[in-house]
Each structure stands twice: as C-alpha cells, then as structure tokens.
UniProtKB/TrEMBL annotation:
It catalyses: L-homoserine + succinyl-CoA = O-succinyl-L-homoserine + CoA. Substrate binds at residues 227, 357. The active site is at residues 157, 323, 356. The gene is metX. This is Homoserine O-succinyltransferase.
Length: 379
C-alpha cells in the first residue's frame, strides 16, 4: 500500500461534483432534471484553456482514472498507466478530466440515486440512456469548467464510442479524437453477449423488477453471471490459456457439479463476486443497452463516411490483434470511413495477446504510440 507515491503519479486526488438543475432532454423522449456528475481532474488548465483532455470510460468504468484517493489505497485509478507526469496523457502538459457517466453507480446520478419526486431510489424507473445523451451531459460539464474546446477526447471500448460521438455531435469543440479498441456499432454477436448478461440479471429472483433496493437485497447471482460472461469476452483464448490453462485447484477431480475444480473457474467466480459487491445491476443494464443502441451511421442509411463528413477533429484509432470483442476489423471500418470522408486519421494495430482488456494495460508499443500522438498535439 503506497505511502509515498511514484514520481510519475498524479498523487492524491479528490472527486468533485457538479450539480445541474436544467432538465436534460434524452433520446428516449424523457428528460432528467436535478442530476449530478462526479469527476476528477489531473494537471492544470492553461491560461488559454486549450489543453483540456476528456477521458470517457468503458462499461464498468468510473471517474477515478488516475492517482489515489488516500495513502492506503492499494491500486491507483483504472488508467493510471496512461495518466500522469511524463505519461501518454502527460499532466505536465494537459488538464485531464475524467467523469462517471450519467446513469453510473459511482457518484453520478443513476438508478441507485434517490428520485426527488418519489423519495425512493430510481431503480427501474431511471430513463434509458444513449451514448449521445452522455456526450450532451459531458458538454454541459465542459461549459461549467469553462472549456470551449477539448484538445482531445479519448476513450477505450464504450469510451471510444463516446469520443467518436463527440466528434460527430460537437465538431467545433474537439480537436483530436482517440478511439481505442472500439467499433462504429456492435455486431450481432456482441448484442447477443449483452442480452445473455442482461437476462442473467433480469431472471434473478432478487431483482424485483429493478426495485431491489427497496427490498434491501441485490441480484447478486445475476450480476455475478453477467460479469463472468462479460469477462470471458474481454480476454483472448491465448491470454486465458497462458494464465490458467487447465490448471486445477487441487490434485484430483471431484466429479461433481458444485466444486470449483479448475483455476479458471475460481478466477471467474472471484471476478463475479467482486463485481457484484460494487456495481449496480440497473446500471449494468443501462450501460449494455447504450452499447447496443450506438450506431451513428443509422442516421445516414448506414453510411459511416457520410456520418463523419462533418467532423473536424483529427483521429487516432488503435486496435489490438487478439481483441475479438472489438476486433481490428471494426477499427478499420472507422479508418476506412474517415479516409473516404477525406479526414486526417492515423491507425495502429498493436500485436498484443491480452484481448480486449489490452487497452487498459501498459503494453510498451501501445504506450509509445499513444504518447507519440499526444505529444504532437499543439496547445
């Protein structure tokens, strides 16, 4: 547990909260008023307010992307390998903003928050959200912070979709878009994985139609299964084979259906157990639906190049060879559309065995390219 922080760490950080009373109109036809967004910042905003970078998180992410909340925190923020002095998102140059999306369960208003109208948790009554809704709320946060234009919007996976939507929705407010391990829309297979995860939650007897908080329970079994299914897709076959193989927990098989016999079984159960204790089931449903709904090209009859015709940002697209959840082919779709639209784009396919989760890991080639691109951004 760190008592003295590494030299390239942003050190101690304190989450901040911004409250919004003006109703936010949502794609589903509803609006949300009196909500809050929790966020963290790293580095300093320069006098010209030209060095701000927005970090958009993935499905189970949150605002705590770098540094430590206290000296006893065992692990730093989820993207600490990329944020800090001298790192890819160099806090000596950039003012980095990382938030928890609306609908989240880490401080921003979401299903577990109290509905002022009823005095009870929103639960299943919380409105369905889209990536576009998140981007609009993020733009309002930028207004509050006095940031008229982002030097860059950066995200991996679902975060990469948000970065792309920023370039589409607010072309004058973003100079660079970095979309990492992402896709222009989900494949049928990805939607299917999300539906299996949702059904695991929805069919849990403790779900109570989404109002489980009123019953002082959580749909733990459903959340565990959802996380186990999801986690399998985040890793590659090679990564799982190298980490676990067919290793056993003990020297012999038990020949029953209830024992945890293989190392990989133990790992998945641990991941499910840990996740069910910190993540809200309704938020999981919301996040996976936002993934499913993302398809900006639908407004242009599926023509992604036409969709991107109005963007002004330069793009950096990064994929990973063993990512089968968001394969390199999906990143190349974005690159091809940008080229067809005559936009500036650079593309890197990183040879990495870790699968989809590679975007979270300190892979030297990845960090070198990430840093190289960010260092070329003029402020």
């Amino acid at each position: 547990m760190p008592t003295a922080f590494p030299e390239d760490s942003v050190g101690l950080v304190t989450p901040q909260v911004e409250h919004f009373a003006e109703p936010l109109a949502l794609a589903c036809g509803r609006s949300l008023g009196n909500y809050q967004l929790v966020y963290e910042t790293y580095g300093e905003l320069n006098a010209a307010r030209s060095n701000a970078v927005l970090i958009c998180h993935a499905l189970s992410g949150h605002h705590h992307a770098a540094g430590y909340h206290n000296s006893d925190e065992r692990k730093p923020g989820w993207w600490d390998s990329c944020i800090g002095p001298g790192k890819a998102l160099d806090t000596n140059r950039f003012f980095v903003v990382s938030l928890n999306n609306l609908g989240g369960c880490n401080g921003s208003t979401g299903p577990s928050s109290i509905n002022a109208v009823t005095g009870k948790p929103y639960g299943a009554d919380f409105p369905v959200l889209t990536v576009e809704d998140w981007v609009h709320s993020q733009a309002l946060l930028a207004d509050r912070l006095g940031i008229a234009q982002w030097a860059a919007v950066v995200g991996g996976s679902l975060g990469g979709m948000q970065a792309m939507q920023w370039a589409i929705s607010y072309p004058d407010r973003i100079r660079h878009c970095l979309t990492i391990a992402s896709a222009p829309k989900l494949s049928a297979q990805n939607i299917a994985f999300n539906e299996v995860a949702r059904q695991a939650i929805l069919s849990d007897p403790e779900f109570h139609g989404g109002h489980f908080q009123e019953h002082s329970v959580i749909p733990k079994r459903g959340l565990m299964l959802a996380r186990m299914v999801g986690h399998i897709t985040y890793l590659s076959d090679d990564a799982m084979g190298e980490k676990f193989g067919r290793g056993l927990k003990s020297e012999k098989l038990n020949y029953d259906f209830h024992s945890v016999e293989f190392q990989v079984e133990s790992y998945l159960r641990y991941q499910g157990e840990e996740f069910s204790g910190r993540f809200d089931a309704n938020t999981y449903l919301l996040m996976t639906k936002a993934l499913d709904y993302f398809d900006p090209a639908a407004a242009h009859d599926g023509d992604l190049a036409k969709t991107l015709a109005g963007v002004k940002a330069d793009f950096c697209v990064i994929s990973f060879t063993t990512d089968w959840r968001f394969s390199p082919a999906r990143s190349r779709e974005i690159v091809d559309a940008l080229m067809a639209a005559r936009k500036n784009v650079c593309y890197l396919e990183v040879d990495a065995p870790q699968g989809h989760d590679a975007f979270l890991m300190p892979i030297p080639r990845y960090l070198q390219a990430f840093s190289g691109y960010m260092n070329r951004i003029s402020l």
